[in-house]
Write a structure and sequence with these properties.
The structure is a homodimer of 240-residue chains.
Chain A lengths: L4 H18 L5 H8 L4 H26 L5 H15 L7 H11 L4 H5 L6 H16 L2 H7 L6 H15 L9 H24 L3 H29 L11
């Protein structure tokens, strides 16, 4: 019943509405970043905390891979892991993120040692990996659909970082440029799998909740970052 | 302490001894296969049951992948999944196994539907996947070290199948030819990881047990196969 074209369309609208209401572009730290008011220390804190998220992407994707039901789906999904981990020939997303870390003046060793990763970041990202390990694959795939909302943000972010934070070496922005093409490709097949597979209202509800949960993960990383470093010269993000 | 060269050497000997004592080449069904006495029905039953093992290899490897601690290790390990699932350009191990299924006269649809997969096969293989999902990565990697014992067996098996079962289309043996090169490569780095990482006696014990467990999985698949189809014209494998 819920697989009918109308209910499928309604399901897709529910998923897209999650981005409109709670994607992390609306977080005060993120808004401050795009206004160009973040200090170097705040940008560095964000990059160092977000590294923990980047590092766990292939872990999360391998957990999902191990639940996918057929090799056609695995052949698609495995490219996410290769994109992020890289190969002998191609730099992966994690290396690109370390390039950003160097470009904002962080030492790679310090980033890898995770000394600036705050507990709130760790708890949120670990919860995301746990979801991928324990939930049905369609629910876990639905949680990845924040990629539907990412490309617009990435395009804007590249411009903002290049113009409002000219002290960041532009080569460091390679990560975001990669995502401009990878995110739409990945979001397209992930969305089609979710729409095809989640044909009961219960499963559709679980998918919507998983996508909300993922938005909460990204939001919590920014909460932890803002609590530690503030969000602008007056540290207005630091409440209490 | 246990990481010292002598104890490391002793650990490697313990691992290799597992193969000598309980690798499945010593199973009566396997011995009958290599004596050339299996009927077509028995060969078909073996191929159909073993398909369930083949199918779960990438699932098991993705579970291990999701526990590996760094991207260098993941870049190595991920090739196992690509080798088995294949890609748009290259046939994978599962497809090669389906080629063997056709070569012995099975219908691919029947193999895929798993109608001939017996519960004993399913329980054993599922237990292997569960080990990969739940155990520390070094223990799960140790369980894969049956590959240390495989190449000799593969070389012999190709010869046996080609000469003693001439009714099998020789193209169907591509799977075993692949394994001749892939298994030693995969076993070599897996062994080096295990020797490097398992530096306490407790962890070494757990690794040895995991390898014994894996031998038991392969053995149980042959038990289930022999119980269902016998092992030779007199069905001497069927006891009671």
């Amino acid at each position: 019943m819920h697989g009918g074209p109308e209910l499928r369309h309604h399901f897709e609208e529910r998923l897209r509405a999650v981005g409109a209401s709670r994607y992390h572009d609306k977080h005060p730290f993120h808004r401050a970043m795009h206004e160009g008011v973040l200090t170097r220390e705040q940008i560095r804190g964000w990059v160092a905390n977000r590294y923990y998220y980047q590092k766990n992407i292939p872990v999360k994707d391998a957990a999902i891979l191990s639940h996918l039901p057929d090799r056609e789906k695995r052949r698609r999904w495995i490219t996410r892991i290769i994109d992020q981990d890289g190969s002998a020939e191609h730099e992966g997303g994690i290396e690109s993120w370390l390039g950003l870390a160097r470009a904002v003046g962080l030492s790679e060793a310090q980033v890898l040692a995770e000394v600036e990763v705050h507990p709130g970041t760790r708890f949120a990202v670990d919860a995301y990996v746990t979801l991928a390990r324990t939930q049905p694959w369609v629910v876990a795939v639905a949680s990845s659909l924040t990629e539907l909302f990412a490309p617009d943000l990435m395009a804007h972010r590249i411009e903002v970082l290049a113009t409002k934070y000219p002290w960041i070496d532009e080569h460091g922005l390679a990560y975001f440029r990669r995502r401009l093409t990878l995110a739409p490709r990945d979001a397209a097949y992930a969305l089609s799998w979710v729409l095809e597979e989640a044909t009961t209202l219960d499963l559709q509800d679980a998918c919507v909740r998983a996508l909300e949960f993922k938005c909460d993960v990204l939001w919590a990383v920014l909460d932890a970052t803002m609590a530690a470093y503030g969000a602008g010269p007056t540290r207005q993000g630091r409440i209490g």
